[in-house]
Amino acid sequence: MNNTVIDAHNISRVYNPETIPVYAINNVHLHLEKGEFTALVGPSGSGKTTLLNLIGGLDKPDSGHIIIGGTDITSLRANELINFRLHNIGFVFQSFNLIPVLTARENVEFIMLLQKVKRKERDKRVIQLFKQIGLEDKMNNRPVQLSGGQQQRVAVARALASKPQFVLADEPTANLDSAAAFNLLDIMAKLNKEENTTFIFSTHDQRVIERAKRVITLVDGKITADTAAVPLTNHKLIVT
Fold first, then answer.
1. Which parts form a coiled-coil structure per UniProt (predicted)?
2. Cα separation of 103 and 37, whole Å?
3. What is the pLDDT of residues 105-158, one digit of tens each?
């Protein structure tokens, strides 16, 4: 059985190519499998978010190929790429990006409406997701009625609603206090362990790095280290 989720070959993203080229991503190779809990780390400007955007089809590489579940997304037309993202990729952003006029339930359900999922299945999936994030009693609240940590948990449920191949999380704990961040990470780690949900993080947060099973370091658009990580109970990271 092929467990490969993402295969990126020789991808580069270049700005100002005709004057002074700046390589946000420089000839990167990346292979990710089902069930990974991977952190992309590095200093500001290292290319973490750009790489996440390329993998997520929010941006296109200037060279190379990105293959997701057997589909080369770099060859898709704009409308095909939108449809592919809808059915295959979940996103969690640091600013939550919930729709303010919708309830928490409606925010999670929205992507399934776009997928044309039938009402009965939507209802079942929404209830399941809110149980998993521990917010069954907040389903009818609007984002303004939720704390930052609660909003981010709803954002995770929304990312999972489409049953994606993987979830991309860009600095998901950046706007959370320690208690909310650890709560969020507990939920995502549980989903990863119990449901084999694949998570790929872009992060500066040591709390996320300490939970990761794999840590990929980028510097100046290049991967400089790729290590398996074993978190200890005291949250100290060991790399092998």
1. none
2. 29
3. 999 999 999 999 999 999 999 999 999 999 999 999 999 999 999 999 999 999
CA torsion sign for 142, 148, 150, 156 is positive
Q: CATH no. for residue 64?
A: 3.40.50.300
Query: pLDDT per residue over 204-233, tens digit each?
Result: 999 999 999 999 999 999 999 999 865 444
- Is the dihedral angle over the CA atoms 19, 24, 28, 30 positive or is it negative? negative
Supply the range of the domain harboring residue 51. Answer: 4-239
- Least Cα distance to 5 among 76, 63, 89, 78 occurs for 89
Nearest alpha carbon to residue 204 among 55, 97, 92, 46? 46
How many domains is the chain partitioned into structurally?
A: 1
Q: Alpha helix locations (H) across the chain? A: 48-55, 78-88, 104-114, 119-132, 148-161, 178-195, 206-211
Whether 54 contacts 204, CB under 8 Å: no
